[in-house]
Automatic annotation (TrEMBL):
Residue ranges of every copy of the N-acetyltransferase domain listed in the record: 7-170
One GO cellular component term: cytoplasm
InterPro entries cross-referenced by the UniProt entry: Acyl_CoA_acyltransferase, GNAT_dom, Ribosomal_N-acetyltransferase
GO molecular function: protein N-terminal-serine acetyltransferase activity; protein-N-terminal-alanine acetyltransferase activity
Gene3D superfamilies reported for this sequence: 3.40.630.30
Pfam families in alphabetical order: Acetyltransf_3
Source organism of this protein record: Candidatus Entotheonella gemina
Annotated protein name in UniProt: N-acetyltransferase domain-containing protein
PANTHER family assigned to the protein according to its UniProt record, in alphabetical order: FAMILY ACETYLTRANSFERASE, PUTATIVE (AFU_ORTHOLOGUE AFUA_7G00850)-RELATED, RIBOSOMAL-PROTEIN-SERINE ACETYLTRANSFERASE
């Protein structure tokens, strides 16, 4: 478990599955920029049984309150096999929790954890154009804008531009507002 000031990050437990699946698949509360694809419940549970949603190349943690209420999820995956790093995705399940700094703290702690636990040089975010809140989170966590991929994601009947942000290993000390360990 990774403890922050307002939230904690922890791996998914089998007892979370019946609460987590409806949260991940509720299109109404996912936000306007989360891809609409959802797994079937049997596939979702089988993936958990096979990996616990945690391997060397991909993993998911829950963002929980100190009382262990699930408020979001954050995950990493290998975007391109020859990249020396991971892409991070995240979502807040309850729209009432958005805009309160939860995701800034979660992303900061998670990125720091990945750099401390893996021999990688970069983490990246790919954010749909128009997702101002997510761009603010990236900027608060010290990620640098790298460019835009044109019409890279299809959602809600049209293509979206996707903005690339990255954080390099040698930028962590100066950039991340929340750290696992103080320097």
């Amino acid at each position: 478990m990774i403890r922050g000031q307002a939230i904690q990050l922890r791996t998914v437990r089998e007892t979370d599955l019946d609460r987590l699946y409806p949260l991940l698949t509720n299109i109404a509360t996912r936000g306007d920029f989360v891809p609409l694809r959802i797994p079937s419940e049997p596939v979702f549970k089988r993936q958990f049984q096979e990996t616990g949603f945690w391997t060397e190349d991909e993993g998911r943690m829950l963002i929980v309150t100190p009382e262990d209420d699930i408020v979001g999820s954050i995950w990493y995956f290998k975007p391109i096999h020859y990249f020396d790093g991971f892409e991070i995705g995240y979502t807040t399940f309850d729209p009432q929790q958005r805009g309160r700094g939860i995701m800034t703290e979660a992303l900061s702690l998670f990125a720091d954890y990945l750099f401390q636990s893996r021999n990688i040089h970069r983490v990246q975010l790919i954010i749909a154009e128009g997702n101002i809140a997510s761009e603010k989170v990236a900027q608060k966590c010290g990620f640098t804008y790298e460019g835009t991929s044109r019409q890279a994601m299809f959602r809600s009947g049209h293509y979206l531009e996707m903005k690339w942000y990255s954080l390099l290993r040698d930028e962590v000390d100066a950039c991340l507002p929340h750290r696992l360990f103080s320097s």
